[in-house]
Amino acid sequence: MRHIARALICSSLSFACTQEIAISPEVKDPATPADTDLALPSLQPDIEVTPALLAFGELPTDCPAADQDVTVKNVGEGDLVIDEITLKGPNRAPYTLRASPTTLAPGDSLVLTVGFQALAVEDYGDAHIEVSSNDPDEAVARVELDAAGSIAAFKKDQFIQEEGGGVDVLFTIDYSGSMSEELQALQNTFDAFITNFIALGLDYHIAVTTADEFDATFRGPVIDPTTPDPVGEFVRQTGLGGGGGEMPYAASKNALTAPLVTAENAGFLRPDATLAIVAVSDEIGDDTMPAGDYVRWLKSLKADPTMVSFSGVVPPETGFGCIAAPLPSKNYHTAIRQTGGVWGNICNLNFRPFLSYLSYVAAGLEFRFTLSDTPTSTNPSAFTVTVDGVPLPFDSIAGWTYDAATNSVELHGDGIPDPGSAVEVRYPYDPGC
């Protein structure tokens, strides 16, 4: 420790005194640890526990739930010493926990197995798991537990709407003579698309090109958040007319592939943004490229292939479509399915609901939530769907519907959750007891 000597120096003229401080060389006190002993270790552990909630649903007392796992991982640089793993809370009795304290080297994981069997017909939500460790910032990590005893079995699936980010949208439009009415309808309803982008605070790029394979140019500047009137600019670009080509696969590929990319096109495609191609045509298309080949090319543009989608305002897949499209557009629908895009019927001149859906899909947001089990009843009264705890009505315009083909609950209109929102679906199921 340093010894500090203080001396008073006084002036004979002013009788004022000042305090002079002298610091002697450092002398170690044998009773005090060295400075290096007081420092924290340079390599610290960091605990990561997932998931933060286990929901077992509602089960009869004679029906044990399927076990669920919790993963404890050391994402730090020093050894993580797990001292204790315990069940806590007044309703912990129906839960079981299989785990043992251990030490995890950096990058190592431990799996905790958790079970549940109701003791009575009542709620068992006030319980949790505590994981105590030497993590300097989070000495105790928690996992919440949620379950209940009931007469019938119900399951709760929970989802979190992912945060939106950058999104690039390329409209590839058929400008043939039969499209005048459809283009007018697209212009009249485009506000439903861009309004959602603005409300979500997305960093968007929107461009328009023709479906002519020989024309790779954009119809105007890229529309982005700095565009003063994005709706007006889109209407202007889609009203310029163009070639009558009906090859959206070839046209979109040419518009995004060197050496055909023009100076205007060059800044459109961003590596960290989702990419959505939107075909607008009343014909089945003349693309010679098979849908599978086009989808493979499209997915090759991103390190994460789920960041791309192909959607279309095109004729139906089967049947004879509308008058302007006497043949089905199966080729388009194949690409739509393989990329998780959405379909809007060109024969229906009200594009507003489709464009609202499209805005979420293009941004990489979800409106379709796949259930973990098959419901034993599809009666809407057997379901409860909430967004951030607020119940949604069974409604195809601004609520939810169930799609048996995909075993998913679809949210519509204002019911589609904003980024970061929590969606919960409660439904009857067969636990196999």
Mean of pLDDT: 83
Amino-to-carboxy terminus distance:
71 Å
Strand arrangement, major sheet: 4-11-10-6-8
Low-confidence stretches: 1-37
**What profile does the largest beta sheet have?**
5 strands, mixed
Structural class: alpha+beta
**Proportion of residues in helical segments:** 10-25%
Radius of gyration: 31 Å
Number of DSSP strand runs: 23
Individual helix count:
9
Q: Architecture of the largest domain, CATH level 2?
A: 3-Layer(aba) Sandwich
CATH C-level of the largest domain: Alpha Beta
Strand portion: 25-35%
Give the tally of structural domains.
4
Relevant CATH superfamily of the largest domain: von Willebrand factor, type A domain
Q: Give me the CATH fold name of the largest domain.
A: Rossmann fold
Inertia-based shape: elongated
Structural summary, described in words:
This protein is of the alpha+beta class. It folds into 4 domains: 4-38, no CATH class; 47-160, Immunoglobulins (Immunoglobulin-like); 166-362, Rossmann fold, CATH 3.40.50.410; 368-428, no CATH class. 18% of the residues lie in helices and 31% in strands. The protein contains 9 helices and 23 strands. It has helices at residues 35-38, 180-189, 191-200, 230-238, 248-256, 263-266, 291-299, 330-339, 352-362, and strands at residues 4-10, 17-23, 47-50, 53-59, 68-74, 80-88, 95-98, 103-104, 109-116, 127-133, 140-149, 154-160, 166-173, 203-210, 274-280, 308-314, 343-345, 368-370, 384-387, 390-391, 400-403, 408-411, 422-428. Strands 4-11-10-6-8 form a 5-stranded mixed beta sheet, with no helix packed on it. It has a 5-stranded parallel beta sheet with strand order 14-13-15-16-17, sandwiched between helices. Helix 3 (191-200) runs parallel beside helix 9 and helix 7 (291-299) packs parallel to helix 8. The protein is elongated, with a radius of gyration of 31 Å. The protein starts with a strand and ends in a 5-residue tail after the last strand. Residues 1-37 have low confidence and may be disordered.
